[in-house]
């Protein structure tokens, strides 16, 4: 209600009959305009009270929601919704209104040959006016309904394209990696054949050096295949609400002795009172260990400082790991997440590939900044769950 109506309401005892009529006509005109706007938009709108009675709805909502009966003002949602999942979501929004002011969820329906995806958002509105009747709690639940079928379809196509591109990169890396062991096996088989030709009979000792190399290369091929399967298989991610700072402290405590052996000092700069994140503790620990191991390698024989920070950015939490090592040039930095790319003599080239994959599985982002001779910073950004954001907002209020 705008300020004009609010002021008039506060002084209604002093208004004349004509003034009250003018006020009612004005409000009726405003309601008529609002109703016309609601009927012309493509977004579905449904407003209910705490008793699940429909206060208002538009034609878009009637078209999109699967209904058992007509969606009309005064009807009860308990009896008109056809889809049980939608009914559960909408009716739960009433009981959750005190703890969760806003929720959003996607729902899927079969419409002919196509699958329709609806995004339904519930927003709780608490009136600042006293209830007009004893059974009226003053609270209203607004449902905003959007057809996001095309949007979700585009996202799925983009994800498939990214997966295919990633798989192509991995496959190219595998093809490159298996060339050397296959060539070595071929060469030693030829040498073994020539040895047979020189001697009609070979002892085990004569052929051992050839067979040992062939065995080693077969093991190497097997390792490449195992690594390839790791890179392409979906991860088994177990998401739970965890405190990121606690995980960081555990990992840093674990590697502190090794850091000391390499003359590396550790600086922790963790922001207090971070919201909990939905993460897999073991996988995030693996990510941190991988990045810290790389930092130790970058500062090897030089010593230096490893700094680990966490920062609350509202909708996201940032985790930054900075070393003072040798750094990277732009060409190296652009390839570090590619499978089988490594600057280490004994590295598999899959450590940072795993890091990238884990962060993506958590819906996060990872970025790297680096300068030769000045060190490297890995910045991991993880989303804060909606429930945690709402809890923090409620505490602030």
What is the makeup of the main sheet?
5 strands, antiparallel
CATH class of the largest domain, please?
Answer: Alpha Beta
CATH topology of the largest domain: Heat Shock Protein 90
Q: State which percent range the strand residues make up.
A: 15-25%
**Rg (CA only):** 32 Å
Q: What is the subunit organization of this protein?
A: single chain
Provide the domain count. Answer: 3
User: Could you state the CATH homologous superfamily of the largest domain?
Assistant: Histidine kinase-like ATPase, C-terminal domain
- Number of DSSP-assigned strands: 12
Mean pLDDT, to the nearest integer, reads: 80
What would you say the CATH architecture of the largest domain is? Answer: 2-Layer Sandwich
Low-confidence stretches: none
Distance between the termini: 23 Å
| Shape call | elongated
User: Count of helices?
Assistant: 12
In percent, how helical is the residue content?
Answer: 40-55%
- Major β-sheet strand ordering: 2-1-5-4-3
**Helix/strand order:** HHEEHHHEEEHHEHEEHEEHHEEH
Report the structural category. alpha+beta
Which key phrases capture this entry?
single chain, 397 residues, alpha+beta, 3 domains, elongated
Explain this structure to me?
The structure is a single chain. With 397 residues, the chain is of the alpha+beta class. The protein has three domains: 41-147, PAS domain (Beta-Lactamase); 158-232, Orthogonal Bundle (Helix Hairpins), CATH 1.10.287; 240-396, Histidine kinase-like ATPase, C-terminal domain (Heat Shock Protein 90), CATH 3.30.565.10. Helix content is 49%, strand content 22%. The protein is built from twelve helices and twelve strands. The strands form three sheets. A five-stranded antiparallel beta sheet has the order 2-1-5-4-3, with helices on both faces. Strands 7-9-10-12-11 form a five-stranded mixed beta sheet, with helices on one face. Strands 6-8 form a two-stranded antiparallel sheet. A hairpin with a 3-residue loop joins strand 9 and strand 10. Helix 6 (149-198) runs antiparallel to helix 7 (204-232) and helix 9 (281-298) packs antiparallel against helix 11. The radius of gyration is 32 Å and the shape is elongated.
